[in-house]
Design a protein that fits this description.
The protein has 156 residues and is mostly helical. 62% of the residues lie in helices and 6% in strands. A hairpin with a 7-residue loop joins strand 1 and strand 2. InterPro entries: HTH_MarR-typ, MarR/SlyA-like, Tscrpt_reg_MarR-type_CS, WH-like_DNA-bd_sf, WH_DNA-bd_sf.
Amino acid sequence: MSAAGEPEDVVSPQQLRLLYAIGRLDRGIQRELEQGLRPLGLSPHQYATLTVLRARSGLSNAQLARRAYVTPQAMSQVLTSLITAGLISRSPSNDNQRVLETRLTPKGLEVTASCDLIADEIENRMLEGVPQADRLSLLAAIRACVQRINAGLPGT
């Protein structure tokens, strides 16, 4: 309890409104991605992993987990499913044979491009009627928030 007699976890209406809105948006995006990716046999975590690998090939399990915001154990499951689907390959690092580097296969690159079309459609529906300048401002604000929330975390 605080000095005012309120529970410690009570937040102001303004804080709740922003956090609640962001949470609802995140859940809505996840739901739409799940539905959109289902015909391709992929999950949002698998798609996130593919996009991370397209941007930076050769990452280890731990590096991928940090960038995709999942635990190393969860990433191991994601990687196993992507290997089985023929979307990624893994090989020992030249620097450390115990570390497996992960790369997209040509099929993985093709599937990632198909997923991008689904993500583009979701973004376009979500931002319909929002001027381009406002979209860029929103993106900049979100990136700044992500940078601040991740400040001090290793690997971010």
